[in-house]
Amino acid sequence: MQEKGKQNRLDGLSAAVKKSHNFILENRSKLILSGVIDVGSFNETEVVVYTSLGELRLKGKELQMNKVNVESGDMEITGRIEAAAYSDNIGRVPNNFITKLFK
After folding, report:
1. pLDDT in tens, 48-100
2. For residues 19 and 88, what is the distance between their CA atoms, to the nearest angstrom?
3. What is the CATH number of the domain that holds 67?
4. Fewer CB within 10 Å, N side or C side of the chain?
5. Which long-range contacts link 7-14 to residues 24+ away (Cβ below 8 Å)?
6. Residue 6 belongs to what domain range?
7. pTM for the complete prediction?
8. pLDDT of 4-53, one tens digit each?
């Protein structure tokens, strides 16, 4: 199960490499992303997305995913965005509860 999720993300990466990745933050309350390959996890305080440039981890309050277009890789997140950090984990499968369950 874990390998399938990783492979899907890697398949998406080959198409996403051709796409640019944009990060537009408006007043720390609205974030517009492009080049999104997959969503690793999402709740009101933390969002993990995989982009064409790596893993993006957002932290904040009252975070909501308003618009998601899987085909184009566009996403809009609103709420109080307090932190954003990138890492190079493009093909990494998130280490969440479901992943641990099937190990």
Report:
1. 999 988 999 999 999 999 998 878 899 999 999 999 999 987 654 445 444 44
2. 17
3. 2.60.40.2000
4. C
5. 8/38, 9/37, 9/38, 9/50, 9/90, 9/91, 9/93, 10/90, 10/91, 12/37, 12/38, 12/50, 13/37, 13/52, 13/90, 13/91
6. 2-101
7. 0.70
8. 555 555 555 555 455 789 999 999 999 999 999 889 999 999 999 999 88
Q: Which residues are CB-neighbours of 13 under 8 A, at least 6 positions away?
A: 37, 52, 90, 91
Residues 6+ apart with CB under 8 A from 7: none
Task: Report the pLDDT value the prediction gives residue 75, as an integer from 0 to 100.
Answer: 95
State the distance between the two ends of the chain, measured CA to CA, in whole angstroms: 9
Return the residue matching tokens 């051709």: 18
DSSP state of 93: P
